[in-house]
Amino acid sequence: MEIIARPKGGDVDRMAEKVFMKSIEILGGLKKLVEYRNLTWLPSLAEAAYVIVLRNEALKTYSEIARELGITEATAKNIATADDVKVLDYIRGGLEERPKEHMAGGIAKLAYRALKESGELDLDEVSLNDEMTEILEIAWAVQVLSKIKGLDFPAGKEQLAERLAGILVKEKGREYRIEELLDRIDYPVKSPSELLHKLKMAASA
């Protein structure tokens, strides 16, 4: 009997936000990322969260995911097939050597599974706990995701500038007004993940 897989529907952006937030929780919270100067992980985690949701909830192929997020097909596959058990063992200190797995992919898979098992992925609300709220001023990626909630993609410069006005982006010890970075990127922006990637690249240039 032929089985035809169909997209399950649901709000991909909202589910990806939940996977992103859960990933940060698994890593010990935003404070822990700040302490170890690992805030640069945030764009990778956001990208991985989208890949996992698009693959498992929207049933997209790797090539479709690659086109939608502006990444390579190989990257999409590496994220989706990362060994989350090895990654969990590594971040808990059980492995001395970093595994060759896609770290953000493994963490996002752990987060996705935890949310599915608890039934939280299907709920509408996305919440930030006190620790996350406290540290939003420096976690620019989280701030951006929060501000663009509900925005339709692809998005143009005017839409993004209106939502993101005033955010400060800190990258590799330097600080930028987000308006400055928005002037440097190409439009339209296809997705929240692509937006984070382009902002990071603009700040790193």
Radius of gyration: 17 Å
Give a count of the beta strands, DSSP E runs of length 2 or more.
2
- β-strand amount: under 5%
* Estimated structural class: mainly alpha
In whole angstroms, how far apart are the ends?
A: 53 Å
Question: In sequence order, what are the helices and strands, one letter per element?
Answer: HHHHHHHHHHEEHH
Q: In DSSP terms, counting alpha (H) and pi (I) runs of 4 or more, how many helices?
A: 12
Which shape, going by the Cα principal axes? globular
Describe this structure in words.
With 205 residues, the protein is mostly helical. 57% of the residues lie in helices and 4% in strands. It has a two-stranded antiparallel sheet with strand order 1-2. Helix 1 (12-26) packs across helix 3, helix 1 crosses helix 7 (103-118) and helix 3 crosses helix 7. The protein starts with 11 loop residues before the first helix and ends with a helix. Mean pLDDT is 80; it is low at 1-7, 124-128 and 133-138. This is KaiC associated regulatory domain-containing protein. It comes from Geoglobus acetivorans. InterPro entries: CHP03879_regulat_dom_put.
